[in-house]
Each structure stands twice: as C-alpha cells, then as structure tokens.
Design goal:
Subcellular location (chain B): Cell membrane
Strand content of chain A: under 5%
Strand order of the largest sheet of chain B: 5-2-7
Oligomer: heterodimer
Keywords (chain A): Membrane, Transmembrane, Transmembrane helix
Low-confidence stretches of chain B: 561-581
Number of domains of chain B: 3
Helix content of chain A: 55-70%
Largest sheet of chain B: 3 strands, antiparallel
Structural class of chain B: mainly alpha
Order of helices and strands of chain B: HHHHHHHHEEEEEEEHHHHHHHHHHHHHH
Distance between the termini of chain A: 64 Å
Number of strands of chain A: 2
Region (Disordered) (chain A): 121-140
Low-confidence stretches of chain A: 121-140
Shape of chain B: globular
Protein name (chain A): DUF485 domain-containing protein
Largest sheet of chain A: 2 strands, antiparallel
CATH superfamily of the largest domain in chain B: Sodium/glucose cotransporter
CATH class of the largest domain in chain B: Mainly Alpha
Number of helices of chain A: 5
Helix content of chain B: 55-70%
Largest interface: A-B, 65 and 73 residues
CATH topology of the largest domain in chain B: Sodium/glucose cotransporter
Strand content of chain B: 5-15%
Mean pLDDT of chain B: 80
Transmembrane segments (chain A): 50-73, 85-105
Number of helices of chain B: 22
Structural class of chain A: mainly alpha
Shape of chain A: elongated
Chain lengths: 140, 594
C-alpha cells in the first residue's frame, strides 16, 4: 500500500483529454453534419408554419380594431344581447376563442411536422444524410 | 379582521409549498429551472399563475372604470403574446439548453458583453415590473384593513424572498400553479355573485354608460396621494360634526392623507388631465390613449407592446426552461393561451360594475382597487365582507406569484450572469434584490401600476423580442448586430419614457408614440440588428448554432440502420453527441451507419 493513485482511463478518454478544449462557459455549437439536412428542413417547415399562424393572429389583431373603428357593421352599438352592446361583447367573445383555436392549430401542425420527419421522410433523409455539407441543399 | 383571515392562509400556504421544494436542491439548475422536470399542464398553470399579476387581477378592471371599455384590449394583447411565443420561441428556446435569456444570448452568439447587456435589460424589466407589484400589495392591504402602506410592501417582500431563497424554482412552480387555480376561483365566483347580487337596476345601468357628474349618495373619499381637482360650483362636503359645508369652486390642491365626504347629489369635481368615467367615448370599444383622438393608433400601439413584450418577458421565458423538452415547452404555451382566455373573460364584468358602483375612485386615482371595493357596495353585511376577503386573498396571490418569478430572474441575472456564483450567492441575491425592490416601492405609492408594467412590456418588446426572434430564425445574426439592436431598443424606450414623464407637453399622434413607443421602437431594434449584422460576417459555427435549436430531442438517429427496427431508435437528446467524439471515431461511425 504505497498510497499512490494512478488514473486508469481508456485510450479513447486519454485521446479526448489530450485535445485542446474550450475553457469557460462557452463552447462552439456543434451539429452533426449528418443531421444538417433534417435541421434545415425542420427550420424551413417551422418558419412556414409560424408565419401562417402569425398571419392568422395578425388578421385578428389588425382587423378587429379596424373594423370596429370603421364601424363596418353600423348597428353594432345598438344591437344588444341580454342588454350588452354587441360592440362590447365583440372584444371579449371573439378574440379569446379565436386565439385558443389558432394556438391549438399551430401546436398540432408543429408536432405533426416533427413526427413527419421521423417517419415518412427517413428514406428521403438517408439519401442526403451522408453529405457533410448540407447547408445549401433542400432536404425535403 | 376577516380580511386578515383571508390573506393569512394564502401567505401560509405559499410558505408551506415553498418549504416542500427545499428537498433535493443542490445545483444552480435545480434552483433556476426546477431540474427541468415540469409537465406541460402543471407548467402552463404556473405560467398563467405567474403572468396574472396585479395588473391583470386588479389593473384591467380599474382601467375599464377609468378609461372605458377599450381597456379590454390589454388582455387580448397579453394572451396573443403566447401564440407568438408558441410559434416562434418556445420550443427552440428550450432546446438551446440555456438557463436564462442572457445564457441563451451567449450560447447562440458567443459574446460575453451581450450577456452582460441582456442581464442589465433583465434588471430593468424586473424593476419596472416588481415595484408596481409590491406597491399594489401595500395599497390593497391598506384599503381593506387599516394598516399603513409599508406593512403590505414589507410583508410581500418578506414572504416572496423567503419562499424563493429556500425553495427556488421548484417551490415557485408549485406555488404559482396553486395560485393560478386560487386566482381563477377567487375571480370567477365573486364576479358571478356580484352580477346576481347587484340587482337588475345596476345591471341595466352598467350597460348604459352615463357620465359621472353627480354623487348618488354620501361618498367618502380618502386621498392617499395628493391630487389637483377642478371643483364645480355647488359641490358640498359633509362634516361629521358640523354638517354640510360648501367647497370653493376652482382648483383645489388636496394634500395627501385627506379624507372627505362628498354630499349626496352634489356635482363631482374633475381631476386634471383625466377623462370622467362614463364620459363620451367611454363606451367605444377602442383604446384612445390620453384622449388624443387617435383610438385606432392607440389600440394598435398597446396591442403591439403587450403582444411582443410577452414574448420577451424574462420571467415567462424562464418558466419555459423548466419543461423537460421543446415539445413540452410548446404544449405549455398552447395550454397557457387556453387558461388565460378563461380568466380574461371576467375583468370586464368588474369594470362595468365598477363604473356604476365605485366611480369616485377615479378622484384619487385608485381605480386599481375597484375590484376589492365592489363587494362592500353591493352588500354591506357579512357576505360583502367575505367576498372582499376572498378578492383580497386572490389579489395577494397575484402579487406573490408574479413577484416570485420576477425576483427569480432578477437574482438569476445578478448572480448567474453579471457576477457568476454558486447556489449560496443566488440565495443571497434573492434576499438582497427583494430588499432593494421594497425600498424602491416604499416611496412609489403614487405611481400608476398599469403604466409601469406597460413600460416593462415595451422594454421587453424592443430588446428581447428581436434578439430571440432573429437569434432563433436568422442565421446571419452577429453578436455586434445583437448588441447594437438591444442597445437601440433599450435607449429609445427609456428615452421615450423620460420624455413622457418629464418632457414637454405633446399632443396628437406624437403623444401616443411617445407614451406608447412600441410601434416604432420594435421595428427600430429589428432594423438595427439586421443592418449591423449585414455589415459584419457571422461566425463559421453560426449556422450550426441556429439550426441546432430546431432539431427535436427524441428524433431517430441517422446512424441506426432501419433493419434493426423501431426499437433501435436512440434518444439522442440524452446521449453524448456523435459530433463531439474525436474525428476518427466519427468517421468510423458514419461508415457503419451508411
């Protein structure tokens, strides 16, 4: 019992420790080249879906105040449902259900997109998957 | 007394749940993001619980009393923000693996100065948001019980910092989820009771707005903050000892702390620069800021600020980091839209009833307290007191939940980003930040809570919103561009804030764009980021850093042969990355995978 301790590591670990490492909290982001095409396709798909969801939201946010201010429906202030003017009800009863619908629509499509890339297009994906430089390619 | 009985359980349960979170907390990650093991439903309840602050629970109804039906656009913007969050930010943000927004900025752009700047922005937003929470806690407690203002402020500060310093994010999660349910119940049940109890006359009156010109009964008004009133001829005060006394007409400087009783049937004094509740335009479903005559511009400005601001609020983003993966973060955002939509159906009820029953609150500028003042007007017996107690408890839950999240990001920004340190320092930072906020809130009794919170939203919308959207979706963003854009957004909003507080008197659309600058500061920040980024070159790893955010965690590995069947799919999110291995190993693996 000499008390001397010796580090026992696999050759692979020794190799890894010998390489230059980034110190500090930050290290460059890595993305496996083989996954690049899928990432690009997901980025595009996500962007397309986000834009259409935001467009639907924009129609609501821009359109509802505009139509209320232009009084596209002139009788809105006079018509009352259970005593409440329709123009008051319009800014509570219309936007909230509409927004819930848009939210779940967007959620459904986003999850569907991710599932689609796991099943359907795996064949498609394997063909381009071997190329290291997939930045400029269209994977879908 | 009954009010104290209502607030005490909320405070106690908050502390108890907080203590439950103390177990098994060892690392910064445990403290800041609850070890990332919060399910979507629990998390969305916590997000909603944190988000429904004093501004939602009390402020919206108060704004309806003061400014009119158009104020109901605020909740629409608050909720719409989560759709933008869902579509653009939630999942990629979670996949970045960052603990805080400054962390994300550094992970994506590798710039230490950007991280510090982002931490400073977090502090600005945190202070703008926290001071009104503590202030309203003090004010509400002093309205319903006869305690001095500072008691509520110190109580709120003490409870929040103790819960957080002990239990961190895990405690905050359970507390906020519990308080969301509490707030929902304590908001909806009294609303229904008020509607039924108010009687058909008040209900009819509520939907037929008339200007508040005469007192309908002897009305006692307490001016906690000084005010300048324009007194019309014939206004009378009732003195308890001496009987009626006529007020001098003309300007009347009311010193703070005055309590007067206006006589039944006398005309109402006007507050300088404020529209009277129920005046022309009150019933219009658009938001005419400061009555400048541009209702459409005002409505859009508020919608842009609240919607894009929500996307950049650091304490809300932090909550998304507690989800186990990007998919759960996205589900959280969608559930949150639904939960908030239920809650926001009700502030309008308090608003329209408040205009009929407590319009005199506008004289003191304390329309925020309309919600807690209503039950006593409808029923002066036990039922009224009980419901006042319930609403006060709900309001207290609102301050506590929001302050918990905010204090957490503020202390995270100090102790994780500005001066990195361990768990012990984080706990100390919580207590220190709470003490500073309490000191700032003590002289702030006269500030308008809604205004400060809206400024918080505006700062977030013109700094973090462009940083996150471009950082996640645009690979050419550079650190220099992000720095320039965040600085431009911060400087322009703070400049507009200073002009609107102490600058010259402005009118027309210019006044709206200074009071609510989001319509031009947000595009300015976006443009600065894009132009400055275009002038430079993104780092070689920038594309990988951006695309990485869009890969979902539980994907099938490209290295597994399909012959092995589905069972061979590996969970890449939790294994060491093939790309991190040495190049020799990587080359061999790739050959095998082919």
């Amino acid at each position: 019992m000499t008390g001397r301790r010796v580090a026992v590591t696999s050759p692979q670990t020794r190799l890894a420790h010998a390489r230059r490492r980034y110190r500090g909290p930050w290290r460059p982001a890595t993305l496996d080249p083989a996954e690049m095409p899928r990432a690009i396709a997901l980025h595009r798909a996500g962007r397309k879906r986000a834009v259409s969801a935001l467009a639907a939201l924009g129609v609501l946010i821009v359109g509802l105040p505009l139509s209320l201010s232009l009084s596209l429906w002139p009788g809105l202030d006079e018509v009352r449902v259970a005593g409440v003017p329709l123009s008051w009800a319009a800014i509570v009863v219309v936007p909230f259900p509409a927004m819930v619908a848009v939210a779940f629509w967007q959620l459904h499509r986003a999850e569907q997109a991710e599932r689609a890339f796991d099943t359907d297009s795996l064949d498609n994906f394997d063909k381009t998957g071997s190329s290291d430089n997939g930045v400029g390619e269209d994977a879908s | 007394m009954i009010v104290a009985l209502a607030v005490a359980p909320v405070v106690l349960v908050t502390m108890l749940i907080g203590l439950r979170g103390v177990a098994a907390m060892r690392t910064t990650s445990d403290f800041l993001v609850a070890s990332r093991r919060v399910s979507p439903l629990l998390n969305s309840a916590a997000v909603s619980g944190e988000y429904l602050s004093a501004a939602s629970f009390l402020g919206v109804a108060g704004l309806v009393v003061k400014d009119g039906i158009g104020s109901l656009w605020y909740p629409v913007g608050f909720t719409a923000g989560y759709i933008a969050m869902l579509a653009l930010v939630a999942a990629p943000m979670r996949r970045s693996g960052a603990l805080t927004v400054p962390d994300f900025a550094e992970a994506r752009l590798a710039s230490a100065p950007l991280r510090k700047l982002a931490a400073v922005v977090v502090l600005v937003i945190g202070v703008l948001y926290l001071v009104p929470q503590f202030r309203t806690a003090g004010l509400v407690l002093s309205v319903v019980t006869e305690t001095p203002y500072w008691v509520g402020v110190v109580l709120a500060g003490g409870v929040v910092s103790a819960t957080l310093a002990l239990g961190g994010m895990r405690a905050a999660t359970y507390v906020q989820a519990f308080q969301f349910v509490l707030k929902l119940v304590l908001f909806i049940v009294p609303a229904m009771w008020l509607l039924i109890q108010a009687g058909p006359d008040v209900r009819t009156e509520a939907t037929q707005p008339t200007e508040f010109t005469h007192f309908h009964e002897d009305t006692t008004v307490t001016f906690r903050v000084g005010a300048t009133l324009d007194v019309p001829a014939g206004a009378e005060l009732v003195d308890r000892d001496e009987g009626p006394r006529e007020l001098e007409s003309g300007a009347w400087e009311v010193p703070p702390g005055t309590t007067v009783t206006f006589a039944d049937g006398t005309p109402v004094p006007e507050v300088r620069g404020e529209a009277v509740p129920g005046a022309d335009g009150w019933e219009r479903p658009l938001l005419d800021l400061d009555d400048e005559g541009y209702p459409l511009l005002g409505t859009w400005a508020v919608l842009i600020a609240t919607m894009l601001g929500t996307m950049g609020l650091p304490h809300v983003i932090m909550r998304f980091h507690t989800s186990p993966d990007g998919r759960a973060a996205r589900r959280t955002a969608a559930f949150t839209v639904a939960l908030l939509s239920v809650f926001y159906l009700f502030p309008g009820i308090y608003g329209v009833l408040g205009r009929v029953l407590v319009p005199h609150l506008y004289l003191t500028g304390a329309t925020d307290s309309a919600v807690v003042a209503l039950p006593a007007q409808v029923d002066d017996g036990t039922a009224g007191t009980v419901f006042t107690g319930l609403l006060t408890a709900g309001a207290f839950a609102a301050f506590l939940a929001t302050s918990l999240g905010l204090l957490l990001v503020v202390s995270g920004a100090i102790s994780h980003d500005l001066v990195p340190g361990g768990l012990r320092q984080l706990r100390l930072a919580v207590v220190g930040a709470a003490a500073v906020i309490v000191l700032l809130a003590l002289p702030a009794a006269g500030l308008d809570a809604g205004t400060l919170v809206t400024w918080g939203f505006t700062v977030a919308s013109s700094t973090f919103c462009p940083l996150l959207v471009l950082g996640i979706w645009w690979r050419r963003l550079t650190a220099a561009g992000a720095l320039a854009g965040v600085t431009a957004g911060l400087v322009s909003t703070i400049g507009a804030f200073l002009i609107s507080v102490g600058g010259p008197d402005l009118h027309g659309w210019v006044a709206i764009l200074v009071a609510q600058p989001a319509p031009w500061t947000v595009p300015l920040a976006f443009l600065t980021m894009i132009v400055v980024s275009r002038l430079g070159r993104p780092a070689p790893w920038a594309t990988a850093a951006m695309l990485r955010l869009h890969l979902h965690e539980h994907r099938l590995s490209p290295f597994v042969s399909r012959d092995q069947g589905d069972g061979a799919a590996r969970d890449l999110g939790h294994s060491s990355w093939p790309a991190r291995r040495s190049s020799a190993v990587r080359r061999i693996t790739r050959r095998l995978g082919r």
